[in-house]
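During the reporting period, we have paired protein sequences with backbone structure tokens. One record among many follows, to show the layout:
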Amino acid sequence: MSALLRRAGGAAAAHPWRTLAAWLLILLAATALNAVAGGEPRDDYNVPGTPAQAGTEFLRERLPAASGADARVVVHHPDGGAVEPAVLAAVADRLARLPGVASVAPPRLSADGDTALLAVAYAVPVTDFRGTEGVDALAGAAAPARDAGLRVELGGSVPENFSAPGGVAEAVGIVAALLILVLALGSVVAAGLPLAVALVGLGVGAGLIGLLSAVTDISGTAPTVATMVGLGVGIDYALLLVARHTDGLRAGLAPVAAAAEATATAGHSVLVAGLTVLVSLFGLKLSTLPVYSSFGYATFATVGAVMLAAVTLVPALCALAGHRLLPRRARRARVAVRPPWIARWAARVARRPVPAAALSLGALLALAAPALDMRTWPQDAGLQPASTTVRRAYDLVAAEFGPGANLTMIVAADPAAADPVAVAAAVRAVPGVAAVTGPVTGPAGGAAVLVVEPATAPADERTAELVDRVRAAVPPGVHVTGPAATSADIADRLAERLWVVIGFVVALSVLLLTLLLRAPVVALKAAAMNLLSVAAAFGVVTVLFQTDAGARLIGLPHGGPVSSWVPVLMFTVLFGLSMDYEVFLLSRVREDWLATGDATGSVVRGLAATGRVITSAAAIMVAVFTGFALDPDVTVKTLGVGMATAVLIDATVVRLVLVPATMALLGRANWWVPGRRAAAPVQPEPDRIPAMVP
């Protein structure tokens, strides 16, 4: 692989214009194909194998009008006066004529008469709406109320499922990354190169995601997550190659030779690191939720594109830039300048590994401890910014009709198998039920439906408990479904599958790293370190999003459960990203160990050689993820905060303290191989065992 990469990097550097033209054609082809044959993102919220999904399928077969999306149109008199019935009748009539609407319930008035709630039921799922069409239709139908001077807010699954496209997060991340690159590389030309390569890879990845959307369901949030990850790893991978290339220039190599050497060494680490991220993404399939598979597809396409762009486009651009990649002082001196503090720090940790390991391990466990109290629930409108209509509708409904009116559940029964009146009486007797509407029997008499309103807010843990109590109260064969039951089932399913995903990702990553380093002890230790950094990030996320004090620090109105979608997605992505830095560090340590047989010294020299690059790469990743933490969508914000925290912890406490301390403690045992003595490392032949130096 090293020889192949050397030839590929050398060829790209020797023929830079051909390489640039090839990538330009790939980018144009992906963009054009996406424009012609690409599809639109579409969420698939089915949860196969759950009781709520069984109820949804029952309604789709027996009573389609009760199986689709829902919306709430909240009409409020700003001065506290009564809402005119004629206005409400006009709005209800216009709502009933919207495409896909099955029914509009009679207006529900608040106790003081200044607020009216119109519940809209659709016969189509929420995923049938494209862009703003569903929200625009609802807003248009409510025009008579606004014309009468009334306030109109929109809630329910149709408005809540739409999020306006951003761009601020990406811009913040790019600007911050560029500043860090200038500081790290000391040259504007060198700083711009990784960013350009990452953007080309992102462009190709965006085209591929569009094409995937034409043949399968890709979640509307998946492109944002793919961009977040792809931008971070793309810049990091290119940075490692550029840094290695500039080391070659300082050593006196010609630009083409330096590019070939950088691709053979750092390029090998980039490929292994990228493959580790891709392997981790396979774990999303084990969640058994289609929406997670779409996250995996989108991120896989983007990371694959930026990884290939890094190992082919970077050598070409480096050759074109020549010695302009070096700072002016370095061009004249042709000497390598390394910050001495990393070498001194590494030596200090190696001299006293026990206190360093104990302190860092204690800090990680303390950060991870709050994760034991993490509670998950699909995010609702109650945590959205107050500037959004869904949040304002949520607050109005909770204040005027009770918190449970924001998330109801549906009880569906076959009248031939269960008496709907008796079922309704049993449900009304369940503690925690605020109101029961119905039963309403379908036109053909194949299904009877009750709408159950909890007495507690959607994110309240008592709401999930109420779902279980209602299911226990109804006869066998009666389905409990609807938004509240679906949310409870999603939270339960993802909590169960998280451990399956963790086991799969860890096992596969350990196998991959063992094959790379031929050192099972190091591979197992790397997995343990990554688990610690991810657990610490989970603990920080729990404190910031689940407590009121933490939530206010990040601009949220109050604390609430962590989004059910976050832990599985965050783990799979973070474990792969953490392995990136592990590969970059351990590859250099292993090279030194094979060359010298000095177990402790190789750790010090490996950390000293890679610390600057890893620190810069991690700072870029933190900057990119912090940009996404500014996103108004709570799920994206949680991912941004969590991943920025994890990378920061991983690049500081883990990589600079815990890893060198434990490796110094283990000494030659790090490199034990079954059937071979660790004390006798074999000097590699250059063409057989590549020197993977970032």
Observations:
- Confidence is low (pLDDT under 50) at residues 333-339, 678-694.
- The two ends are 16 Å apart (CA to CA).
